[in-house]
C-alpha cells in the first residue's frame, strides 16, 4: 500500500480523496435533506465546491495533521502499514464528519426554513448519519480507489518518472 511520501504527493492525494469524499457525501446529504429536485443544478454544484474548499482547508490545516499525529502515535509499534493507514483513515473520517456536519447543518438551514427545538440534537443526528456513511465509504470504497489512482497516475515509479500506464 503506497502512501504519499512528499508534500506534493500529500497535496495531490488529499485533493483526490477530498474530491471523492465530498462529492459522494454532498449527494448523500442532498438526498437525506430532500434537496434533490428542490435546488437547481447550479446551486448543487456551488454547494459542492464550497464544501470541497472547506473540506480541503480542514484536511490540510486541522484534521489531516492531527489525524496523522494521533494515528502514528497509536500505531508506532505496529509492523503492518495497513494498521497505520486504517487508523489515519478512521481519525480523518471522525474529524471531517465532525466539522463538515456543522457545514451541512448550516447549509440545510440556509436552503430551507429551520424548524427544530434542538440544534444540538439536530447536529448529533447529522453527525451520526454522516459518520455511518463516511467511514465505510472511506475504508471500503474511496480509500482503495484513490490509492489505486494515486499509484497509477501520480506516484513516481522506480525510474523516477511519472507512471503513464
Automatic annotation (TrEMBL):
This is DUF2798 domain-containing protein. Coiled coil: none annotated. It comes from Mesobacillus foraminis. InterPro entries: DUF2798. Keywords: Membrane, Transmembrane, Transmembrane helix. The chain crosses the membrane at residues 12-32, 44-64, 85-111, 131-150. It holds the Pfam family DUF2798.
Amino acid at each position: 500500500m503506497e502512501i504519499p511520501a512528499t508534500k506534493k504527493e500529500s497535496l495531490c492525494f488529499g485533493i483526490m480523496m477530498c474530491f471523492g469524499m465530498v462529492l459522494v457525501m454532498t449527494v448523500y446529504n442532498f438526498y437525506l435533506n430532500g434537496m434533490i429536485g428542490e435546488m437547481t443544478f447550479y446551486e448543487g454544484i456551488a454547494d459542492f465546491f464550497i464544501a470541497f474548499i472547506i473540506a480541503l482547508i480542514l484536511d490540510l490545516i486541522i484534521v489531516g495533521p492531527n489525524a496523522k499525529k494521533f494515528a502514528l502515535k497509536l500505531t508506532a509499534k505496529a509492523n503492518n502499514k495497513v494498521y497505520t493507514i486504517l487508523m489515519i483513515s478512521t481519525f480523518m473520517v471522525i474529524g471531517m464528519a465532525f466539522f463538515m456536519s456543522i457545514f451541512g447543518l448550516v447549509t440545510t438551514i440556509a436552503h430551507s426554513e429551520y424548524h427544530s427545538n434542538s440544534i444540538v440534537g439536530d447536529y448529533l443526528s447529522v453527525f451520526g448519519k454522516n459518520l455511518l456513511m463516511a467511514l465505510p465509504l472511506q475504508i471500503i470504497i474511496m480509500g482503495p480507489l484513490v490509492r489505486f489512482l494515486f499509484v497509477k497516475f501520480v506516484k513516481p515509479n522506480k525510474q523516477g518518472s511519472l507512471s503513464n500506464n
